[in-house]
Amino acid sequence: MRYIFFLIFSFQLYASTLHLATSANPSRLNPLLATDSSSSEIAGFLFNGLVKYDKDSSTIIGDLAQDFYFENNTTLVFKLHPHVKWHDGEELSAKDVLFTYQVLISDKVSSPYSANFRFVKSVEIIDNLTLKVIYKKPYFLALENWMMGILPEHILKDESNLMNSSFNTNPIGTGAYKLFQLEYSKNIVLVANDDYFDGRPKIDKISFHVIADPMTRFLMLKSGELDIDSIEPIQYERQLNQDFFDKFNIYEDITHSYTYLGFNLRLEKFKNRKIREALSLAIDRDELVKILFFKHAKVCTGPFLPRTKAFNSDVKAPMQNIQEAKKLLKDAGYDEKNPFSFEIVTSNSSPVRPYAAQILQHQLQKAGVIVKLRVMEWQAFLNMVVFPHKFDSVLLGWGLSSTPDPYQFWHTDSDKQGSFNLIGYNNPQINKEIEESQSIIDREKLSVMWQSMFKTITDDNPYLFLYIPNSITVVNKNIKNIEPSLSGIWHNYTKWEKE
Hints:
alpha+beta; Dipeptide-binding Protein, domain 3; eight-stranded mixed beta sheet; four-stranded mixed beta sheet; 15 helices; globular
């Protein structure tokens, strides 16, 4: 009888399951170390920051912090929600926040997020639920930085090597879901946190199916094995029938991300600005968008996204000019007898980028440039190519916040292992402008500075900025309470129900 009761209880506990897909295995389910998209997505269900954006990404609201305020331009106070529990039942306290900060600024981790805290003078515990953060000077990201997931001090305080800790695959957070199962290359299962401080999620379980092949994901979506996934424009335009639209809702909007071809500026061949300009003029971005996306993307014109105060609408994408590209290459010493050549490396985790690489190869060939292509599995791509900086060029993308931080991507200090200046960009003018901008909290003044950086970086051609895809999200109609917003559909996922 007790056994039968257990079966019934288990069935009720996991009565509703949300089936999702991820294209690659997560590398580390630790918010301080989650730099790839799979890790970041899953860790987002497991951990909370002190604050977060509202549903439209326009206002910062509390998360673990019940209240927060500035005492002055350099002093920030956080008051934590009482009785927030870690997944193991221990209660969150101010010690956990201080511990997370201390880990970030220590040599225990190599994290691109550490740089965000370089202006913090001190973090002081006032009482068990109150902290005071004092900055060395006013900082425009003083609040945004505390969106970083908080770590449990009681579990990790004696951890000597956090980079390789078992915690990274057995995380304990405060999030709406707990990790239940981690099967690499197969399935990652999260279960609802009954003690979640903001109310237990209505969907009992989230199952991430690790599926690298985009066609397999698409077929699973069509058959109903997945509840939510993104689809490609060609699928939307050519491969769906009315039966599909009867079963699924479609949500489409511009993404907060762009794709680029980044040159390794540490290599002699890419240090000549004429060569980078030639390569930029040799490609046809409009053709790239048309072939890959139909009408579901736009050309990317620079490093900051549309709809943000950093976007410079006066900067236009270069038009293809093969003759000028050839002339610039010839001035740099390259011609038919001595052609310029390089390799593009990308990953198969994106169904589009391998095709984008082929199109770029074809376009550049018209200017006499010889391009070799290499497509790799995601983790191998990161660990063997991207992080050790062993590439000529990489075809990659960035997902960006509504408030950009140029320091992470464009300052020379971020040209190091584990940071986001992957290409080794070094422009003293940009370094100076970034440093000046960090202590400006007036968003209108910041806007002017960001737009100036936008133009300078774009003129430098460290990247070939390519396209900003639309997000086409497909959701099974049996998922209820979805409220689409400017930030997408996920802002209220704990309130979703599955019929």
